[in-house]
């Protein structure tokens, strides 16, 4: 799945398949300007920062179990969000501080470092990604991902795929080659 935020005409947090199909709103109320988003892949939770409401909130992948992690002035100007173990990590764009927020105890907010011009944060840890033994976009014997001549996107599950073409090309009738 692909998770993303949108604060155009109607602010929301959404999810869809990697090929853009099955688009679903998971949060569409009491939300104004969702910017940063992070996933807890193990427990299947979506966290986001709302810069208008000065809040960090969470829901499960279906949009249920919503609650506020932290709200208020102390978390103004947040951008970027990452989850690792019991903490959320974010950047305060006003003070250029990297913050650690305990996601189970909102009174535990720690500035960790200062980094000028920081706007995004990522946590790299091998165990944060689940291992998939095989998937529909694996490279075939001819070097084409999923048998697609340009781009292979996973679909509704890891065994299904959709082929797409780079700009200026059109997908052929075989659904795999680009012309």
Automatic annotation (TrEMBL):
Start-end of each LDL-receptor class B repeat: 1-43, 44-87
PROSITE patterns associated with the record:
LDLRB
> What InterPro entries would the database entry show?
6-blade_b-propeller_TolB-like, Cueball_EGF_LRP_Nidogen, LDLR_classB_rpt
- Molecular-function GO term, any one: Wnt-protein binding
Q: Which Pfam families match?
A: FXa_inhibition, Ldl_recept_b
Q: Among the entry's GO cellular component annotations, what is one?
A: plasma membrane
User: In terms of domain of life, where is this protein from?
Assistant: Eukaryota
For this entry, the protein name equals Low-density lipoprotein receptor-related protein 1B
């Amino acid at each position: 799945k692909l998770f993303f935020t949108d604060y155009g005409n109607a602010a929301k947090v959404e999810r869809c398949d990697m090929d853009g199909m099955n688009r679903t709103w998971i949060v569409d109320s009491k939300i104004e300007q969702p910017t940063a988003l992070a996933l807890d892949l193990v427990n299947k939770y979506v966290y986001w920062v709302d810069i208008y409401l000065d809040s960090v909130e969470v829901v499960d992948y279906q949009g249920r179990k919503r609650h506020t992690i932290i709200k208020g002035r102390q978390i103004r100007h947040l951008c970027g969000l990452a989850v690792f173990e019991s903490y959320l990590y974010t950047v305060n764009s006003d003070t250029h501080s990297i913050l650690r927020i305990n996601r189970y105890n909102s009174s535990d907010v720690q500035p960790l470092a200062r980094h000028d011009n920081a706007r995004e944060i990522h946590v790299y840890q091998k165990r944060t990604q689940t291992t998939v033994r095989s998937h529909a976009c694996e490279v075939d014997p001819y070097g084409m991902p999923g048998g697609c001549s340009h781009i292979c996107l996973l679909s509704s599950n890891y065994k299904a795929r959709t082929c797409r073409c780079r700009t200026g090309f059109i997908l052929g009738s075989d659904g795999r080659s680009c012309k």
